[in-house]
Amino acid sequence: MLENIDLSQVITNEEYKENMKTLQVELGELQRKAWELKIPIIIVFEGWHASGMGEDINRFILPLDPRGFDFHTMTRPCYEERHKPFLLRFWSRIPIKGRIGIFDRSWYSRAIIELFGKEKNEAALEKTLEEITYFERQLADDGYLILKFFLHIGEKEQKERFKEIKRRGIPLILEEYEEKNGKEPDFIEDYDEYLPVVEKVLERTDVPYAPWTIIEANDRNFAVLKIMARAAQAIETCIEKVTRTPGQQTIKYLDMATVKLPELNGSTLEKTDLSKNLSIDEYRESKKFFQHKLETLQYELFRKRRSAIIIFEGWDAAGKGGNIRRLVEELNPSLYKVVPVGPPNDTEKAHQYLWRFCDAAPMAGHITIFDRSWYGRVLVERVEGLCTEEEWKRAYREINEFEKILAGSGAIVIKFWLHIDRETQLERFERRQKDPKKRWKITEEDWRNRKRWNEYKIAVDEMLQKTSTIDAPWIVVESRDKRYSRVKVLKTVAETIEKELGTWPE
């Protein structure tokens, strides 16, 4: 990709000034239109060191309204970021709809530095590039415009610029992040060594929904104008697409040929035996045994730096809260957290729907328990019409990819669907209604959702079959008998963690 780039491109000062004036006005207007239309924009700047990235970015943002963009310089991760899946720190920085997120270096540089690094781990880099394509495609499918610029200079030009930087005493920003043991591994001076790696990254991630634009950066005026012209053209095209009339729109459906999903085969829920139960003595003995086992296993998780993500979904009144309480009863609260998930707030609605779950993901060695989760997209949002059909159909693949990323980072993902029948739910609703101490648990929304039981059942069956994967299988928990349900959850979590830790290298 880089070998055919003509680095001799130059522009005169007069041409630069004339074009710059026009482009500055145009970019300012386009930014305001994108904000009005709630179009989120991500602009990534990558390139060789000494390619002039800082100066070029500064010239680019000068005509923009600073109230409408966020600027991120991606350097060495903090402690918490190092102990979470690689991409989550970038998920947390994506802009809300209508704003522009500008990245001075991004997930690409960090992947090369952190995952390829000194060990030259090609497998780790390749795996992460695949995850990056998931990340960018999911954002693009949600309406994000993604622009990626790579500032390219020749090796000879880079060496000359390094001499000038040294002569003028300008510190490289990386020097602020050096450790006692030396510099962070980086493609700062090893041009020949990293050229094939950079080529591979660019070629592997040059996709229609997030293409790379190579910027010939030997001449800085030329580089800035090309960046601004390309950005203006892309934003204008995006605005034109968004503002087409319905008759002009080309309806876009999910390309099912690209999605590897199992065929639906009957109802998983109808095959569930809800007659399973436990006596009080069996319950007490098993509960105590598995709780003590989990108390030990949480410290083993911490020692081996494995995280666990435990998801509870299920019918209203199926016992999610009671199960979670028994699960954490003997755990150390400094090593786990419970995240209750309700309707998204305005900020969360202004992001891609997976965004709000990224901060809640556990660090290595910790446990996060979700009381409801990202599956709201294919359950409540689907049934209640809170998202489009295209969005919830697309979500099956997006969720599978998201969980694959979590599992690939070492997280143990355990997913429970707590199942009861409609009659049991009615009995529990009525008991809650009559009990002053439990009346707070029942709401008008619960009664309203109950009326759509059959629609939810169809959605649940499809969810179970399309998102039960090797990395994150679903466990259906027979929950008519609460004692049986709680012991099955405790036993499953304990045995799954124990099995995973037994196969994890010291």
> How many helical stretches?
19
Strand content: 5-15%
| Global shape | elongated
Determine the fraction of residues in helical runs and give it as a percent range. 40-55%
Q: Work out the number of β strands.
A: 10
Structural class: alpha/beta
* N-to-C series of helices and strands: HEHEHHEHHEHHEHHEHEHHEHHEHHHEH
Uncertain residue ranges: 174-181, 250-265
Radius of gyration from the CA trace? 26 Å
The oligomeric status of these chains comes to single chain
Mean pLDDT: 88
The main β sheet shows up as: 5 strands, parallel
Order of strands across the main sheet:
2-3-1-4-5
| Distance from first to last alpha carbon | 41 Å
Characterization of the model:
With 506 residues, this protein is of the alpha/beta class. Helix content is 48%, strand content 12%. It is built from 19 helices and 10 strands. The strands form 2 sheets. Strands 2-3-1-4-5 form a 5-stranded parallel sheet, with helices on both faces. Strands 7-8-6-9-10 form a 5-stranded parallel sheet, sandwiched between helices. Helix 11 packs across helix 19. The longest helix is centred in the first third of the chain and has 24 residues. The radius of gyration is 26 Å and the shape is elongated. The two termini are 41 Å apart.
